[in-house]
Write a structure and sequence with these properties.
single chain; alpha+beta; three-stranded antiparallel β-sheet
């Protein structure tokens, strides 16, 4: 019983953890910001699908690199880049 309760507590803590990513399209050099909530690698060829939090659009990439960011770095970068996006692209 104690093991089940402890495991449930750990799962709840893990579910509340969000990871932050900067993804670079290695074909174009364009970068995107996303979180673990929408970042999904699919299949053996590692296609990635995610919601770009700068433009709020879904993106699929075949050739990419990503790195995890600290929350404060992510939020600062996101705010700065959203301020630069013309309203017509949002």
């Amino acid at each position: 019983m104690k093991t089940t309760v402890a495991l449930a507590g750990i799962l709840l803590l893990m579910a509340g953890c969000t990871s932050y990513y900067r993804i670079t399209d290695t074909d174009t050099g364009r970068t995107y910001l996303t979180t673990s909530d929408s970042f999904k690698q699919m299949g053996s060829n590692n296609v990635v699908n995610f919601k770009d939090n700068i433009t709020e659009k879904n993106v699929n990439l075949n050739s990419y690199e990503y790195r995890e960011m600290k929350e404060a770095e992510y939020k600062a970068d996101l705010a700065a880049r959203q301020a630069q996006v013309p309203p017509s692209q949002k």
